[in-house]
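User: I'm writing a tutorial on reading structure tokens. Could you give me a worked example: one chain, its sequence, then its tokens, then a sentence or two explaining what the tokens reveal?
Assistant: Sure. Here is the example chain.
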Amino acid sequence: MASLCPGDQNCYVATLRILCAAALVVAVQSACGPLPRLNYAVPKEDYSNRTSFHVGFKVDFNCRPGYAKRSASSLYCQRNSEWAVPFYPFCTAKPCPHPAAPDNGQAVVLTDLQFGSTINFTCEDGYRLIGSSQSRCVIVQGGVNWDRDVPVCQLIPCLPPPTINHGTHNAMSSEEFSYGTSVTYKCDNVRPGEIPFSLVGEASIYCTSQDNHNGVWSGPPPECKAIHCKTPNLDNGRVMNRYTTLHTLKNILLIECNKHHTLYGSSTIQCNENSTWSPPVPVCQRSSCDDPPMTDRIMQHSFSFSSEEPSTEFPLGSVFTYTCWPGYEFRPGENKLTITCQRNFQWSEYPSPCQRVSCPTPHIDHGTVVHGPRLRELYVTRDEGRKYLYEDITRIQCNPRYVLHGDDLIRCNQSGNWSPAIPQCVPVPVCPSPCIEHGTLLSSPETEHTPGSTVEVRCNAGYVLNGPKSIECQPDETWKSPVPFCDKACGPPPDIKRGQHSDGTKEDFFYGSEVKYSCAEGLSLIGESSIYCTLGNDLNMIWSGPAPRCEMVRCPRPVIENGRMTTSRHVFLYGTTVQFSCSEGYMMDGSRESQCQEGSIWNPPLPSCRPVQCPKPDLRHGTVTGKQVEKPWYSMNETITFSCPEQHRFLACWHLFTTDTWTITCSADGRGTEIPKCTSHNQPLLVFNRSEFEPIQSVHFKSCKDVAVFYLESARGCKTQSVS
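And here are its predicted structure tokens:
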């Protein structure tokens, strides 16, 4: 070790002093101070006068009264010069027993029941606490217990309720009154004719408490007073519900003003305890004109008023407009009158009655005016002469040889005009005499045809009238309806036995007229069903052909051997059409359809069904196998089996071996099933090993192509080879 002070004696002394001081500092910093004070334990020995303890010093403790030991009760001085005080105390407070709650109350635990804790006692509403309201968990005879007894909750009492003059309450006979008890007051009755007493104030009071200890009544008792309010005197108004003249406390009156007046104040007033009305009696003031005056033959057209005024019926500024009935007016040309409600609430004008509208006197050239019975009162004025008014009716009559053009009766309408317009008298019109070829006119003895006259037309022999029998002359000098003419015609069509035509009652038929024939039920019409009127070679009218005839035509039920009728019916009348088909294995010779014709025969004749035969098939390079007999024709379902010669196989049926055969069957339609062809098997073919195919169920193939497709879809593999 190297020396700090080599050869220097003073240096050694100084160093020694420094080391001693450092040792003293270390010794002072490694000691704990005075013991901490614990509220739950005290040291077993008295260390009150000691202020320093060396590291590792142990102090044992005892639990204070009211606490119990839970774990090791020691403290140690640690190296950091701090006492090791445990986080959880090694002495815990002892618990007091659970407190009992008073009747009609409860015990309130504030924190817990441990030593030193406090509980409160409270009572329910209406009860007061007799005793201490708190209790504390303290040490009692070495243990812990509550320092106060459980208090008592007593019902809060009230003094008897006060009495009132001229009244009583409903508990006069009771002596005790407790919290929540209520009493109701009422006033005494009075003799007839006296003002009854009214209860002023709350009719009921009840026992309550303001400090939860002493009982008091909820309020002062009511009073019994003789209250009478006078009936209000209303100008321009009235009381709506006045059923009596005696108005007592809280009586309510409904006030309403007369028409054209407005209420200022409340419409509802009540009699109060001071014998006055509250709110004050309202006032009715004029706010509208009277209803607009009415007069004869007027109707209200429009009405408006100022929104600034009270909304009464006709307030200041209201405008009322009269409109006369249609055909009436106040003054000539004026059928409306407007009046206004003024500040004095009087109308600006009062209307006069509406007068009837007048029409001008009609002037008729070549005619006169005849006053009919419906003409209303006519009167003569100094300047106007005869005067015509609304709804007056007059008649117009023309002079001789003049006719009226228009209506003869005219009426004075609501606009002051004649309706319809005044007619004119014009010269009488004359219709020209009609020219009827092959006919004559049968007319009246007058030489001229004036409007309203008629003439009759008569045709010469061999001609028929086409048009109306008579015509009438019209005011426009034309004949009413087209002028008829005489034309040639056919006579009645020929009748048929057991039938009829469509115009049975008609006698004459013009060119082009058509009639249709029909037979009685069950009969058939033979021939054309209709004929028409036409022009013959000699220019005379003739019918287009002879009439048909009605006959009983029925054909026998058609039957064909080895066939059937496809039409389902039992009766076969003239014109009925049926269809046929042959049974399976037979072919039809003839028409498949036939119709019932005249003479009860079928046309075309009924067909026949012969057995189906197939011709011998022509199979090139193929032969019939076995002992089958070859013949030119084969019946239905007969079969022929073929095989191909050596070095040949059936064309396109690569799945067959050269030793396989092919069978065809004669089908019901006279054709054989598919006929194969034999071809040389030197051609490339798709060949399959039969062992490579999965077993399959029996399948019906219609052709060789079906077989090939099936094998292509189901084969697991194939290869192309040349078959030698």
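What the tokens reveal: The longest strand covers residues 134-140. The chain has a mean pLDDT of 80.
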